[in-house]
Description:
Strand content: 15-25%
CATH topology of the largest domain: Deoxyribonuclease I, Chain A
Low-confidence stretches: 1-7, 213-239, 576-589, 918-924, 1077-1121
Amino acid sequence: xxASEGTSPSSIAVSSFDTALCIIPxxxxxxxxxxxxxxYDKAYGKWPPHVNVIYPFxxxxxxxxxxNRIEARIARGKLDGSHxxxxxxxxxxxxxxxxxxxxQSSSTQCLDALRSMALEALGQTPSTYNFHLTIGQSEDxxxxxxxxxxxxxxxxxxxxxxxxxxxxxxxxxxxxGQTQDASRMRLWSILSFPSLSMKTASPLIEYWLPRSNQSxxxxxxxxxxxESDPDERVExxxxxxxxxxxxxxxxxxxxERWLVNTLTSTCAFxxxxxxxxxxxxLVDCEYPPSRDRDPLLLHAILSGPASADxxxxxxxxDDFLSYLLADxxxxxxxxxxxxxPPEQPDIGPLPSLRNVVMLSRLPFxxxxxxxxxxHKGAVVAKFDTGASxxxxxxxxxxxxxxxxxxxxxxxVQLHNVIxxxxxxxxxxxxxxxxxFNITTSVYVIETALKNNSISQHATEILASIQTTISExxxxxxxxxxxxxxxxxxxxxxxxxxxxxxxxxxxxxxENQLAAATSGTSNNRPQRYDRILVRPESSLRVAQxxxxxxxTEQNGQQIVPSDHFGIRATMRLFTSxxxxxAASVSSLRQTPIRSRFAESLLADTSSMHHALEINQxxxxxxxxxxxxxxxxxxxxxxxGSSTQFFTSDIPMVIVPVGSYALGVxxxxxxxxxxxxxxxxxxxxxxxxxxxxxxxxxxxVRLIRRVDAxxxxxxxxxxxxxxxxxxxxxxxxxxxxxxxxxxxHHSDPIFNLSMLSLRKLKPYRDISYILRTVPSLxxxxxxxxxxxxxxxxxxxxxxxxxxxxxxxxxLMLSWLHKQMTLDHGTVSAADLVCSFFHHYxxxxxKNEVVYDSFFHNTKPKYQRNVREPxxxxxxxxxxxxxxxxxxxxxxxxLIKEFKMADEYLCEEGMSWDCFLGQRVAHIPSSPNTGMEGxxxxxxxxxxxxxxxxxxxxxxxxxxxxxxxxxxxxxxxxIHKSLPDLSVRIWPARFTDxxxxxxxxxxxxxxxxxxxxxxCADTYANKEDKVLAKQSLxxxxxxxxxxxxxxxxxxxxxxSWIGISLVKPSDVKDxxxxxxxxxxxxxxxxxxxxxxxxIGENQDDDDSxxxxxxxxxxxPSSSNTPVSTKKLRPASDILNRLRWDSNLDPSExxxxxxxxxxxxxxxxxxxxxxxxxxxxxxxxxxxxxxKRKSDGMVVWERRTRIxxxxxxxxxxxxxxxx
Length: 1215
């Protein structure tokens, strides 16, 4: 308030708002005040923290005279210079729209005397005044907003001001063209009273001005008046963005207080592991503080899954930090902190309502990197390890929300942190952890875009954030851990998750606090919290987990915060451990050819829509139907109720294949594997009995199939098709709860090769489900690629093309590598990259394998007849593409390139790519059967006619011809290598309704075209020779089919082959014949089951369940020993797949049906029944080492030098 003017003739008016007489606290007492003022006081950056004595003051021209008068008057007055003034109370003024919060003294006697003497010196009449130091203004007029700021002001340490030392004159500095509000107060002079004080005032610098302007020391003069920028927010922002050094506190057990750390900041990591946690503890109200969740938060922070070397907390309030740091367990574990307890009198409040705080077991130095927005910034701590590369940990809490402004703010904030680290810590290892608030759910993003809540530009910014992270060399710890199968996060068992919702840390569907604070109707899970790592050859992510999860107490959900906490465990490497350090960056060494979806293809929802139109996405009813069918079958086989599944015989039943992977369609069957403690023979007899009894429940046995991995039952459960296999392994059943966490080298997997082959699909799928970064993304991309292969006639592994397992292995590795290289990728990006990468893949020399599972390239002995090699994960690691052929690979590469080109065409959409013809894209792909029938020069037509009465024989005949047709493709390619040979993986017919006539007639078609249009078969003579060669190939193929009397009977069937023109096949249609269901009795055990019986001890089957041993050709009619001998299949697989053994060093002796005993190299031995050179394994006589002629396994003498079964090393007379 202005002082009233007196009547003295020598009075000086005090009416100028351009000057002020005030008391300015010294800088060492202003830190806590300025920390608050920078966020809450609109005068910050223009005024220092001050207590006005006279304001308005005299005009600038009279400052010198006024200064002299006041100094003289006070010098001869009775002001007690030894009397200190303490600002020890907080108060507030009320305004129309806000409150002003300030500090004041409980005793103003000294200040009143000072003001009176100063006014008298200027010839003015003394008056009363409300002395105060402004801290800030509340955001609104609500009492909670005022009380919040008041509570912070009360936490400011007691401020001491000395009127005799700190009395100053300020003068306003203006910038031409700017308003008065944009001006700032400069220090004009400090009043001196040497006779009143024994102390000497320290030189006062203009510490309240932006640092860039502090070099300007010019005091005010009438000729140098400048006007400043009118936008005070810009001025404040410029100041707030300067780096602010932080004060590290450590707990002193002797004084039982948190003190400023004066110890050396050099720390030595005593463990090879470094654990870093991040946790958003949630401030759910401004004032008064809520304390009901504090014990839950403390328990979560101190829990085992959260225990860390460094923990970064977000949304920390004054009240909670005081509560946290007062706990003795925290004081013992985390000795160092970026902030002390605000309730400790000498520390002061935290700057904001929601603060980032870092606690550590190790000493550190830190600084605060403010963002443009108030209350936002990064805590950047440096841990000086004494090594060449230090560790820098940044804790962040980015702006929340999904709007154009908030998305842009997130990008700028993250860029500021990364840029700061690059400029100041370029050679250090980085860890950036905290609440990134980046929306990860694709569903939420696409919904916001459709509702115009965000613009297309905002979605591009979100994508660019991931690019920024990758380009900075930062790895997402969760992604790396998941890819490496070391993610211990509890996966949500839900099929309705969208892309970007896996391992969510903010999940309104499972967290009631998140549901209350989500602020959106979508309530979709988000992975907001992250830990990013730049290893720099000294760190490697080893593990990842969540903590602070919800629990149930008395039927109510108990959850500490709306976020789940996260923790990353990293391996530390020193310069002495070069071999380990060299592997840190190995994750990025596998090259990949990425291509990202653009334009219309970038819309993932349009891909989903196209898949729904093509019936590739199961409906909810279909999902429930299969769930019920699986539960029913499980109950029938285990002999239990559908509710509890308590089996009378120890066994587990699990899905495998597409159903287990979640990529099934309405036409897919369900593959099941039963693992039990009884023998295979006993199981299948028991299964048949129980299935027959459940006929009234809709469970039917269709037939038994002797598959490569043993007996398989085809079932129907209420119309849902099932394929059931069995694996006898009692020890696995006993340890089933821990099965998924067992290492692949665990002794429990010391099973027969047949049992391992049966377990392999489940083990491999389990690994994929645990390691794929986004199951929703993977499943959507998988379905898209599968639909494309089906439409293009490429979805059939038995015809040498792709099957579900091929797509799964090729796509899962691609997904992992792209996520590691680029961050989050969409299903559209995966599909585009799939075709681009594999169209240029070096199939001849390279192998498709998961480099994250196999640390080094697998030692696979590639056969010359394997143009494609795609390896899985667990042993036996056979080539899943073993049926591939050279002509089939040629077709695949050609189709991949064509798909890659289509996806690059302007205006291409998923509807068009997946089969819908689009007028404005002339080159849109011609899909389906029509394209095949119109794209070849001629066709090899394999005709089948059957008029017998047995459905089983008819189906067997067709299946036999189908299994042999691939060999014809290979033979044609051998005789005419310049031809493109392509078989369509389905039967054709020209009958209108082949399922109603008395006989069957169908055919398989093999398309034949010239690969090169130039000189291939250019003249008539070449064409004649080519046709003759082709017909000779046809004749040999027919002879082979007719010679197999097991399937071919000339009295009931006919098979023929001919060369036809495109016009002859244009009216053919796909055969939809339904052969009907029939039941086959379970006859004698197959050869595979005999091998199980020979090795039941290894399969954990009871010793009493013995199967008869097959007698090998021998002159002796009794075995040498009764000890069980490992079957030939185990020896064959061990010699073939054991990396310590060389398959080329071994010979197989076998019994030829016509020539007697023969030998061949192990590498030439064929195990597939579709191969021409296939020989049943029961004809194997012995295995012999080439180098010394030593027999390592022999059936007759029961010698086994490979496993030590039978007679072990034994005795043999064979050289």
